[in-house]
Amino acid sequence: MRPEDARYSETHEWVRANDKKKEASIGITDYAVKQLSDLVHLELTPKVGDSIEPGAPFGEIESVKTVADLVAPIGGQVIAVNEDLVENVDTLKTDAFDDGWMIKVKYSESKDLDELMTAKEYKEFLDSLEEEKEEENEKVDDDDFM
Amino acid sequence: MGYVPHTEHDIRTMLSAIGIPSVDRLFDCIPERIRLKRPLDLPPPLAELELRRHMAHLAAKNRSTAQLRSFLGAGAYDHFVPAIVDALASRGEFLTAYTPYQAEASQGTLQHIFEFQTMMCELTGLDVANASHYDGATALWEAAAMAIDHTGRRKIVVSQLLHPHYRAVLRSMLQHLDVQILEIAHAQGLTPTSMLRDICAGAACVIVQNPNFFGILEDLPAVAEAAHAGGALAVACVNPVALGILRSPGECGFDLACGEAQPLGIPLSFGGPWAGFLAARKEFLRAMPGRIVGETVDTDGRRAFVLTLQTREQHIRREKASSNICTNQALMALRATVTLSALGPGGLARMAELCVQRAHLLAEKVPGRPVYKAPFFHEFAVEFQKPVHEINRRLIEKGFLGGYDLHRDYHDHRNTMLLCCTEKNSPEDIEAFAAALREVAR
Amino acid sequence: MSPVGQSGGPSNGVSLLFEKGSPGRSGAYLPAPDPGKGLRDLLPAAHLRPVPPRLPEVDELGVVRHFTELSRLNFSIDGNFYPLGSCTMKYNPRINEEAAALPGFAALHPFQPEEEAQGSLELMHLLERHLAEIGGMDATTLQPAAGAQGELTGLMLIKAHHKDRGEPGRTEVLIPDSAHGTNPASCTLCGYKTVTVKSTSDGGVDLDDLKRKLGAKTAAMMITNPSTLGLFEERIEEIAAIVHGAGAQMYMDGANMNALLGRARPGDFGIDVMHFNLHKTFSTPHGGGGPGSGPVACRKHLEPYLPVPRIVRDGERFRFDSTHPKSIGRVKSFWGNHGMHVRAYAYIRHHGAEGLRQVSAGAVLNANYLLARMRGAYQIPYDRTCMHEFVLSGNRQKKQGLRTLDIAKRLLDFGFHPPTIYFPLIVPECLMIEPTETENRETLDAFADAMLRIAEECKSDPEKVHRAPHTMPVKRLDEVRAAKQPVLRWHPPPPAER
User: Hey, which CATH number is domain A6-141, 3.10.20.30, 3.40.350.10, 3.40.50.2300, 2.40.50.100?
Assistant: First the structure.
């Protein structure tokens, strides 16, 4: 299941931080992977040494019929980029939270982390999304259901 | 008039199924105030019999290359077209199909585009090609945009010997995007490569045409080397018939190549519809605009073809797409594919060789001063004692379509005509044309 | 014939032409090279290709068979009902093909002296006038090669207009969320930022959202009317007034003009500039994805910015005119897709005013008839009188475990091309159906019967629908493989296998 020690964003990225070292890994959640389905291509734009801002895109992930921006949940200086994942994007299907890490950053501000959701809050957030979807479908359905 | 098949009975039946009393009521959703309350001001309808006569009458007001013996090129070339091209391209299954989004019902279109892509890769010596563009000029604009995106640089270097319309399209299409276009003047009919290295520093790309607008063969390896030394991409705008015999852009170190497929079996049609092609080295694959067909398998493991890498395109990426192109020119690309299939490598080389031979024959016979000495493909510039439009007017009276007036675009080329020969200009025509020129250009 | 492809299995039935033929084989099309100096005498070796391109080497009959076989793998209007929403797949009259193929048009060189091209210039002038009349506009350019290029051209006119008025700070374009993807992409290419305006539950533009997003930065609103939902925007005048009130321009995507011919004119409901799709409304053939043609028509105040050259009439003579200092320049080489101009002009002349009104009547009648027949079997998200097309949702079938894609693929087994699917994006599991006016009642009924039967099958035999199509030359394709390991060209086999 989703790791308890990670924090989550509304755009379905996760962050796992080592607050002593001020280092964090960033990736996307199993939910995002499932929504995208058929993954075909991953592009990670930053190079080691680049600094990224919270909320800024750090790459793109493509499936056959969609493309999504990867949004940095926290800012910092990039210390590693997972090139293996770029080569084997299917790793995300089986292991979104460990081998599926995308970039590692050195950060200074811990407060960005506090604004993100816990695993429990993220689960509740996903449940509310599903409910909204259901409602929309029902709304259309009511009109003409015989 | 028209092609609506309904009888009164059909209409009544359909209206009653809908539950509405009249067809006009279907338009009630258009507010009364803005409904058109008069007939459109158009000429009366013509039955097919009358329409055929009317269209023939309009066509007869033109005097085309079907009547005039043409020595005019300048980006539009009158080549031989095998009879099978019209026969195959006019098949309704190709003509009246839509974009092959439903792959299972569109294998015909998908496969001929895959074959087109392969042929464009072979001609240009590059790794990937797309399904085609509106024309050569817009393909070039897309190539320039790719170079700008790829390098993050906002300056492009363009040879003055690129077709004037292509330069105009680049100017108008890039004017809103804060891109600087640097035009480099020619030296003796060639793009100068000596100072190119310095000019290219900080540029996204260098664009040259080969053969250039004056018909002369550029030193492509030197251009590519200079571009790369400055960190710019090298972009070639090329003639596909010439590529039957000339060294390919890929071989000469170019990153991108594009051009106009019109010389390959596409009628002149007063400038369109034609088809642009665009090819690139494989590292630019995901930056390519437009449709691309790829090979895959079906659930039974059989080979089949499908539109692929669609996430690059506007219908998915919307405002983030690098291009807004939606259609390609599939039917025109089909004509090029059938033409190349019919000719084969030997026929294409033969066509190109005849172009070279006939153009050089004309260059020998023609009165007037050849302006440049450099090697040329099937066009060359000649200077006369009189303005070109005067000479051309007299030539028309004799049944000849004379060359392009270079003074329109190059003010240092007074009284200079760009002449063109293809395999369609027989040695006898060339003799007759040279004789006519000797008479009228005096 | 060797049907084994690179992918290891038998192919869709037709080998690539590259896999056929034999070295040295070809038709006899061209005479022998001239005696005397040959290629190597006339051009330096450094310019010449050491190895010829690897093109197919096939006899003429082989080429004819190959492309005939390929053609048989295609659905087409000539062969099948093709109700693709917003694509207007109507019959392409053959008389128009014949006209465009007349040597007077087809063999005309674009740089011929104007005196020798008077027929074509006259035709272009008349087509410009007719399109302006149909759109309620003042001036037209025929230069853009397709709808998307028309959009970009129209936006460039708007940009030039604001700049000319000293308002370069207008940098945003408002676009409804139901818009076609080319709209936002065209904005980006014109240097504009796209701002999305929401739709209301009845399918119209949300006026409150529009007012919130409109301002001093707005350059234009781009609207498609009828919308991609097949609905006429009943508040279009009010929208135009609000947008104009803020100093911005109204652009209309004319993709759906088939519904309005002779009924309403964009110029009369507040549109400043629009494009036409000759390949939709005016029946020029789609050709498997082009060529199209996307003329742009505008009101007087935008005319100075139209691309050059313009066509002008001097008495009985026509000529090109490039003396327009405010023009945005040139968007395409030469004068546009002239062959398409010839076809569209012939189409308009065949119909006349009353004929075009019958086109819109037939298109709207056919769509509403099909809509009526779908009721009960499929969800209808916007259940009211539609224009030339309508949208369904496959939501109900989704609950039975089937997707709209499955329904679309199953339609192929009945000999019908599927409607546009998953567009517009705001309708879940969307099917967008545009029958066009040239289909007769029997065809519409047969299609409706197939749709109803598929709805039944979704309940009774879902696996059959899920595995469709069953009758096509190929089954469903592995699109993931195509995108993940792209094979975009034929490669010759390694020498050992040759």
Answer: 2.40.50.100
